[in-house]
Write a structure and sequence with these properties.
By secondary structure, this protein is α/β, with parallel strands linked by helices. The chain contains 8 helices and 18 strands.
Length: 335
């Protein structure tokens, strides 16, 4: 069994990480650390949280993965502290959006780890299983109140097969994003999973979740949760049915409010986090830092300027943009 530590003790840890670690058998949770020592409860179990400043290299000896989920302003300094303690060969699973825009000049601190992945579980949601099983990939999508900020970019990148973001703009109702390979999506905001719906379009078919007919009824398909005895069991796109494993069903839990597919969003995200852990344990990886940073940058410019274009100044893969990040690092000093 592989050894892991969690650094952080907030809502994400209590509601997702600890229940998932308790349900799976690939990773041994060696301990939980946070800014200060305390006791937290998750799933009926109590966990003693160690103070991060009190940890030693001996505490993390043999650790193969650190899952880091702390407040966004604290990320660069906590990454540096964990890097001091982690043994050679240790990987880092860092929570979205990796770092604040003003801290992106500190991304080099991640180089201290054997590998770094991002805990973007929206990219591993089980609802994508039947969609990705089709030979013909969807080319456009409408995320109606179900895609939030940079998570929405990750969702669309996954289901549409998008690579780099070419452009994006704010609209009166949300945002529009286009990928370099021509795929695109519209997100209607604000997020409301109780009423959220999704429409996917491909040259020969259109798939919809709850909420009425598609504007393109030709080749209409239905994407829906498969529920057995009140519990989430998988997802189906017409006759393409993908069932979840027993462990995935166990971590999913109860649905939220509403009557559509996205009432299961919290459950799907727990399953998505479990899948990230399983992929890493199997020698694969999580969501890439490169993609997560771009998702964050696109979201930043949409909020600041109302639009994004993959120019030398904005694109995080371009030299001028990287120089901007280094300049911000000087201004936005961290410990």
């Amino acid at each position: 069994m592989k050894r892991a530590w969690i650094v952080g003790s907030g809502k994400r840890v209590v509601e997702t990480a600890l229940p998932v670690f308790a349900a799976q058998s690939t990773w041994e949770l060696a301990g939980v650390a946070s800014r200060r020592a305390k006791t937290i409860e998750a799933g009926g179990a109590r966990h003693d949280v160690r103070a991060l400043d009190a940890l030693t290299r001996a505490d993390l000896a043999g650790t193969e993965l650190v899952y880091l989920v702390v407040s966004k302003p604290a990320v660069p300094s906590v990454v540096a502290r964990v890097a001091e303690l982690a043994p050679a060969g240790c990987a880092l699973l860092i929570e979205t959006p990796v770092m604040l825009f003003k801290h992106l000049g500190h991304l080099s601190r991640l180089d201290a780890f054997h590998a770094t992945w991002v805990a973007e579980d929206c990219a591993t949601l089980p609802c994508w299983d039947p969609v990705l099983a089709l030979e013909d990939r969807a080319r456009s999508a409408v995320f109606d109140r179900c895609a939030y900020a940079y998570h929405g970019v990750a969702m669309a990148r996954t289901v549409l097969g998008g690579d780099r973001v070419a452009s994006a703009r704010r609209t009166p109702n949300g945002r529009e994003v286009r990928f370099a390979n021509g795929a695109s999506y519209t997100a209607v905001e604000p997020r409301d999973y109780a009423r959220g719906r999704l429409e996917l379009r491909a040259p020969g078919w259109t798939a919809v979740t709850n909420g009425g007919e598609s504007s393109s009824p030709a080749g209409l398909r239905r994407l829906a949760a498969v529920v057995e005895d009140g519990a989430l069991a998988g997802f189906a796109l017409d006759d393409v049915r993908c069932e979840m494993s027993a462990v995935e069903r166990a971590v999913a839990g109860a649905p939220g409010a509403g009557d559509g597919m996205f009432r299961w969003m919290d459950a799907m995200k727990r399953v998505g986090f479990l899948r990230l852990l399983e992929r890493i344990a199997a020698g694969g990886g999580g969501y890439s830092v490169r993609d997560a940073v771009e998702d964050c940058v696109v979201d930043y410019w949409l909020h600041r300027a109302g639009r994004y274009r993959a120019t030398a100044l904005m694109d995080p893969e371009r030299g001028l943009a990287r120089a901007l990040y280094r300049a911000l690092r000087v201004v936005a000093r961290v410990d």
